[in-house]
């Protein structure tokens, strides 16, 4: 099924001189306190990395046993590990969502079925759409690119004996209070988390898996030795501290306000914002979306094309939430080209 470019991501939209609304990393650089910790760890790079401290920090942060934590080189590594370690009979990916789960499964030789949520219904998750005999199911929450936050009870209802439910919560720390998270642990549920979005660490690759101990052990068995760098381990420990969690919550509240400002401005401009966005990005539909995207590039703005996501088309664009001055300038540019 080569109908979508599953390996296309927002970083491919960005270019010199463009204002980046295509990548969902909130900060342009890690905060000063985090940069200082990373710099201080540089002298230890001659030694092979260990994830022991990072695993303990994540376990303490979520109240999980260390046996239920696997630190990874970004959340995306977890998709490859799952595809390598598991042998599903019927794998299902709920779309539109981040395309790497499907790409990883297909690369590992697995057949993949798609459940496409309806734009008409606001991309609301309907558990009845998932085949009852699916033994591996992937869903995002909040979902990239729709920004829809599914109720935890609805997501949890997908879990059942004989099925592994994988919930991508890469953007959950950008939701105030981490509402609807399943990170506390539920039978048959794997939760993936990323540190790159909130803390400006996309280039460092830092994330982790929360899962039943037997699943963690299977993933660890296929993980490349030392895949998590020393600096990624240091960042993981630092970002799990109470002071960092408090800062992340403040950033989430600010992102929510900035998102509502963007949504209001788009509505005033007559642009359709789809679903009920709760993440640090929004999905819109505009006539001649491919042309609009190219014209935005001409006036200095990079936005994420939507037609590489199963279930979406060329008129769909994803916009990262930025500060209000950037939003004002973008809305003025959008008005200019339409």
As residue ranges, the low-confidence spans are none
Along the chain, the helix and strand elements come as EHHEHEHEEHEEHEHHHEEHEEH
Q: How big a fraction of the residues is strand? A: 15-25%
The termini sit apart by 34 Å
| Structure class | alpha/beta
- Continuous helix count: 11
Task: Please give the largest β-sheet.
Answer: 7 strands, mixed
Number of β-strand runs: 12
Molecular shape = globular
Give the assembly state of these chains: single chain
Overall average residue pLDDT: 96
Query: Roughly how many Å is the radius of gyration?
Result: 19 Å
In terms of topology, how is this protein built?
Blueprint: E1 19-21, H1 32-40, H2 52-62, E2 69-72, H3 75-85, E3 91-95, H4 100-107, E4 112-116, E5 136-140, H5 152-156, E6 164-168, E7 189-194, H6 196-199, E8 207-210, H7 213-222, H8 230-239, H9 242-268, E9 272-273, E10 281-285, H10 289-298, E11 301-305, E12 316-320, H11 324-337
Parallel strand pairs: 1-11, 3-4, 3-5, 5-6, 6-7
Antiparallel strand pairs: 2-8, 7-8, 9-10, 10-12, 11-12
Helix pairs in contact: 2-8, 3-4, 3-7, 9-11
In short:
The protein is built from 11 helices and 12 strands. The chain has helices spanning 32-40, 52-62, 75-85, 100-107, 152-156, 196-199, 213-222, 230-239, 242-268, 289-298, 324-337, and strands at residues 19-21, 69-72, 91-95, 112-116, 136-140, 164-168, 189-194, 207-210, 272-273, 281-285, 301-305, 316-320. The protein starts with 18 loop residues before the first strand and ends with a helix.
